[in-house]
Amino acid sequence: MTERRQYSRGEWISAGVFLLVILVAFASCSSVGSGGSTNTNDGDPGPARATGSRAADGGGLPVTAARFSEWPFTVGAGLLKCEAGAVTFEPAGGPRYAVNGTAKGAGYPDISPIWAEDKDLGYGLKVDISEVLNKGLSLC
Question: Global pTM?
Answer without folding.
Answer: 0.59
